[in-house]
# Entry
Amino acid sequence: MMWAIFSILVENKPGILFEVTHMFRSRNFNIDSIAVGVTENPGLSRMTITTYGDERQLSQIGKQLDKMIDTVEVRRLDEHKTVYRELAIFKIKISNAEESMEVNKLINAYGAKAHDTRKDSIMAELTSTPDQIRAFEELAGRFGILETARTGMAALQRSGA
Amino acid sequence: MTETSEPVTGARALMTALEGEGVREVFGLPGGANLPMYDEFTRCNIRHILVRHEQSAAHMADGYGRVSRRPGVCFATSGPGATNLLTGIATAQADSAPVVAVTGQVPVHFIGKDAFQESDIMGMANPVVKYAFQPRTPEEVPISVQKAFYIAATGRPGPVLVDIPKDVQSAHAKMRTVDSVSMRGYHPWTDPDIQNVERAIETLIRADKPIILAGGGTIISSAFAELQAVAEMLSIPVVTTFKGKGAFPENHPLSLGPIGMHGHAEANKIITEADCVLAVGTRFSDRSVGTFEDFESRRTIIHIDVDPAEIGKNQTTRVAVVGDVRASLRVMLRLLEARKVGPDEGGEWVRHAREMREYWQENLKIHPGELGAAKILRKLRQLLPPESVVTTEVGQHQMWASLFFDVISPGTFFSSTGLGTMGWGFPAAIGAKVARPGVPVVDIAGDGSFNMTENSLATSVLEDIPVIVFLVNNYSLGMVAQWQRTFYNRRMVGVDQGRCPDYVKLAESYGAQGIRAQSMDELDAAIRAGLKSDVATVIDIPIDPEEDVLPFVQPGTPLSKMILPS
# Structure
C-alpha cells in the first residue's frame, strides 16, 4: 500500500464534489483527505485528494478521474516535487500549570499557534505536512486530545517539476 | 454559432435540437412535468412512440441505439417517470449503449422543496450515466442537447440524461446552437499510437498459440471486416465475449464462439491453451474470464480499447493500444500489409483449433427432448434470414441462445450482458425494429423475463412495430432454478411461475398473434407464420423445466474447470 496525492482541476459546478467522491465510493477506492476550493479561474475548482492503494489501484484512480467529463486536468503529484500542507486544530487537555508549560513548549517547537488558552485546555493550530502533524498529534496525545479538526491536504507541484 | 431570430420556448428548442441531431422517433410516456415537450410533438416531424412503462422506453431507446449506432431517445416525466427510467439507463451504461434520456422536472423554484412528483434524478442517475445535464434557463437547452448527443455517441458510448424543469420548458428565449461541440474535459480517444500497434503485432507474431478475443467494442465500432481481415491474414482462431457474440461470423472456420460462464466448450478449451490473447474492445468481465488472476497469469495479453480506464482495470496487459477498435485494427492491417504478412493457412495450432471446434460441434451432449433448447434454437436459425436482428431476455434462454444460435451476419445479436436486466429483450427488439424496419426482429425470451415488460405488446401492436417473441417457456425462473438444483441441493424457492399467464391468450388480448408450438413441426410453422405476420407474434414453446444450461463454469473458478453435460 502506498499513498498518493491527486490534484485535479474540475468544472466549478453544482454536484461536482458528489460526482468525484462517488467515483471513489462506487469503485471501492479510499479517500484519506480531500480539500476543495475555487481557483484563480472562477470556472474551475481544484480538488486535492490524498488516497492510498497498491500501484494498480492508484493507476486506476488516475484513469477513472481522467475519464470523468467534468475533470479538466488530473495530476498525480510526486511528493518530492510538491509543496503540500494541511491545517490541523487540536484541543489539548491540561491538568496543571506544569502541563500547560509543556504543551506551550510543544506548540512552539512545531511552529504551531496557541489559541483559546484556558485553565483545563489549550487549542493548537498547526499547518504542516501530514508526517509532522502526526508526530505532533502523538506527542500531544500524552496530555489527552479533546477534539480535532483537519482540513485535508492542499498541494501544488513546484514550477519546473 | 446560429441564433433564432424570435424567442422560442425551451420545449420548442428541445425539439428543434433533437431534429438537428437527426432524431425521427422518441419512445416515451407523458406526465405533468413534461407536458410542454409533449405539446411540441404536434408541431414537429418527430414520431412519438407511446410505451406502457418508462423502463421499456429506455430499453427501446437502447435497442434502437445499439442497432443504429446513433443515440436512441426516450422521454419521461419527473418523479416516478424518471425513476422508472433508471433500470433502463443503468442497462445502457453497463453495455455502453448510446441513449439520450430526457426527463421533465418540477419548476426550478420547487426543486429541493419535496414537490409533487419531484425526485432528485440528477443525483440518482449520476452513478449510471455517462453524463447528465439540468438546464436551468431555456438558453441552456439547445447546447445541452447538442452536448448530450456528442457525449452519448462518441468514445465509449453511453447514456446521457437531460433533466429539464417545467418552467424552463415553457419560458421563451432566443436560442443559440453551436456548429461543433467541444468540452474541455472530454477528449474521446480515436486514433491509436502506431508504435503500440507495432508492438502488438510483434507480440502476436512471436506467440505459438495466439487467439483473438473480440468483445462488444468490436460491434460498437463496426469493426467486422477489419477483425475478419486480421484473423484471416494471421490465421488466428477467434473467440468472443458474450457481448462480442457475433462480432465475427460464427460459421467462419476460425470461429469458436463465446468464452465464459456459459461459453462454448471449444472456446473455453482453446482459450485455456492459448499463450497470447489479442483482446479487442472488451473489459474482461468476470463472466467472461472466470477469475482475473488465473486468466492473466496464463497468457500474454494485448489489449485494444477506446476507454483508457479499461487498460489494466481487470487484467494486466503486455501491450495496450488505446483507440477506437476499428481505427486500431485498420492501422494493424496497414502495418501487416507493409510487412507482406499472410494470408496464412495456419499451422498446427490452427488445425488443432479447427479440430476442437469440429469435435465439440458434433459431440456436445444436448437435451434429448423434441423441444430441447439446442433443437429449437437451431430451428430458429435455420428459418431466420441471416440479416435478422436478434435480442434476448436474461436467463437460461439467453445462455442457450449464446450456445446454440449462431450469428452469421456480424452485429445482429444484442443482449443485456452487463447488467443482466430481465425484461430488456422485448422492448429492445421493438427499438431495434424501429431502427431497422426492413429486417425481421426476434426476441429470444424466457417466460420470467418476458413477464417484466410484456405490456410492450401494446406498443408493438398499436404503433405497428411487429417483432417475434420466441418464448422458451419453462414456467419458471429457470436460471435461478438451475442454481438451486446445483448449489442448494434442490431446495427450490421462489422459482415456480405456474402455468400463468396463457401466453397465446395474452398475445391475442393485445391484438397480437399467439401461437403455441408443442412439436418441431408446429414450431416450424409458427416461426414461418411469425415471419409473415403484420403484427407481433408470441410463439409459446413449452420446454422441459429441468433442462440445465451446460457447459457451465461456476462463479469464481477458472475457465479450465468447465462442467460439461454428462
Notes: The CA atoms of residues 430 and 506 of chain B lie 18 Å apart.
